[in-house]
Amino acid sequence: MRSGVEAIQDSSYLSDRWSGPFLVDDKHKVIYCGLEKVASSSWKMILMQLSGHVLSDDHWHDADHREIHLKSVLREVGIRGLQEYTAAEITHRLANYTKFLFVRHPVDRLLSAFRDKFEKAGPGSYFYQRYGSDIINGHRQLKSEDEVLMVSFAELVRFITEHHVFDPHWDVYYEVCLPCFMNYTYVGHMENFVEDVSYILKAVFGAEFKNFPQINIINKQRRNILSQYLHTLSASELKSLNEVYDIDMQIFGYHHITENGNISMISSLHQKENLIAEI
């Protein structure tokens, strides 16, 4: 397995990889890879509070609050993007800082993105403007010009599996957070959110899990919803979807998902040595 330090010394590799969602907290000597749809907004708020920024109740109850996503706001409390450092500074931080990320089952994450960015937002939103026409035109025979252009989950799945079009809200983890290079200290799972957040907060920050945002944790109701959407897919579509995210599932300890929506895990946070597989 190639280390992050070795990777950073390769100028061809350095060119664009570190412009991903890596946040650095120099005060606590931490690097966090913040994946969209995996509680990244909540983790930004947690990091801000741990760095001494007092957040109002409105922030905790509104995870979509724009302020927490502004680089200028994060910089004010000492949180910077990894790409803002020099190569030597990055090398030092990769070698000496604690590194962690959170993941969730990739298919469940995709559904969360679909419901939020397509179903909830509706036609006219950014995601419809960015992807809607390509998804619909490529997978549907329109009956009339007046037909409501609502993207279905099955259409999004076909768009991703057939054309391999990715977005930060459903891209593959291993190409974004670089687990085979970063040598993460901790990998938490949304499926064990409270337990894993509590563990990381205590181990890394010496903090207790209290007065922090509540997350929509994976539960029976969530699995039932996931199952409803998965039943709209054909067997071949579900197979293709599992294949797209197969490497992520292998690396982060997930089984292929079935149409009943069961999310089964192979590993947990505390078995980190078995989580990051060499690929």
From TrEMBL:
Subcellular location(s): the record lists: Golgi apparatus membrane
- The enzyme's first-digit EC class, named in words, is transferase
**Could you say which EC number(s) this protein's record lists?**
2.8.2.-
InterPro entries, alphabetically?
A: Carb_sulfotrans_8-10, P-loop_NTPase, Sulfotransferase
Q: Which residues cross the membrane?
A: none
Please give a single GO biological process term from the UniProt record. carbohydrate biosynthetic process
Q: Name one Pfam family in it.
A: Sulfotransfer_2
Q: Please give the chief subcellular localization of this protein.
A: Golgi
Keyword entries, A-Z: Carbohydrate metabolism, Glycoprotein, Golgi apparatus, Membrane, Signal-anchor, Transferase, Transmembrane, Transmembrane helix
- Entry's Gene Ontology cellular component terms: Golgi membrane
- Membrane topology, record value: Single-pass type II membrane protein
* Example of a GO MF term: sulfotransferase activity
Which family does this protein fall into?
A: Belongs to the sulfotransferase 2 family.
Extract the PANTHER family matched here: CARBOHYDRATE SULFOTRANSFERASE
* Protein name, as recorded: Carbohydrate sulfotransferase
| Native source species | Capitella teleta (Polychaete worm)
The lineage, from the top, is: Eukaryota, Metazoa, Spiralia, Lophotrochozoa, Annelida
